[in-house]
Design a protein that fits this description.
Elements: H1 33-46, H2 50-76, H3 79-95, H4 106-131, H5 135-148, H6 156-174, H7 178-188, H8 194-201, H9 205-223
Length: 227
């Protein structure tokens, strides 16, 4: 079962300035370029300059969209769901930009909102699938469509091998223990540092590193001997 990052953001839905699961508060750090831009956008919204705020916010979207899609896809495993989750996260971030505080790097703040949205979607999908089509049927259908609709100029054998490697990796990641899986996905698919993962999950940074090491070791064992 995945770590729910809401354990570090119980009161404020965006998690800003709220103690984590161990009662720690975020420590101020030099502002990154994205954090400075978020502060400027917050000021524009406060002054009612919404058009200019939206124009500036487009820069944050462009900077984080690709990374956000990688994270969302690892949680949802469906491209359409991942795209919707990312768009929803950006809308929520802009809607709540006035609550952003510089104590959190913008990337950490945004990623927490994105992951919470992905977890909500997974829960809703699980409830839906109990009543409608089984998840494995829809997943298989999506994979079948993707395999048939591949790029016409691509090497069919290369596409097949790549698809098999992705399937093996996905299956192996799914066998990780919940916290190990969350830490591994954030570090390797979300490009997060252990310190950033610590801020997102409420885990101690040294604990994050231990989970990351154990996840990598287990994956090597699960994938050992495979091409």
């Amino acid at each position: 079962m995945s770590v729910d990052v809401r354990t570090a953001a119980v009161v404020n839905p965006t998690g800003v300035g709220v103690p984590d699961a161990r009662g720690r508060r975020p420590v101020a750090a030099p502002l990154s370029e994205d954090s400075r831009l978020a502060v400027e956008i917050r000021g524009l919204v406060d002054r009612g300059a919404l058009d200019e705020a939206r124009e500036r916010f487009a820069g944050l979207v462009a900077a984080h969209q690709r990374r956000a899609l990688r994270i969302a896809y690892q949680y949802l495993r469906e491209a359409a769901d991942a795209d919707e989750a990312v768009q929803d996260a950006f809308v929520k971030v802009f809607t709540h930009i006035t609550s952003y505080r510089e104590a959190w790097p913008f990337e950490v703040w945004f990623t927490r909102i994105l992951i919470n949205g992905c977890l909500d979607r997974r829960k809703m999908r699980a409830r839906r699938d109990r009543w409608f089509v089984p998840a494995d049927v829809t997943t298989f259908a999506g994979e079948l469509r993707a395999s048939v609709a591949g790029a016409p100029d691509a090497d069919p054998e290369a596409r097949l091998l790549a698809r098999e490697r992705r399937a093996r990796m996905t299956a192996a990641i799914d066998r990780l223990e919940g916290r190990q899986r969350t830490v591994f996905m954030l570090c390797h698919y979300g490009d997060c540092t252990p310190r950033e993962v610590s801020a997102m999950t409420g885990l101690n940074e040294s604990t994050v590193r231990v989970h990351l090491f154990r996840a990598a070791r287990k994956l090597r064992g699960l994938l050992g001997g495979q091409p």
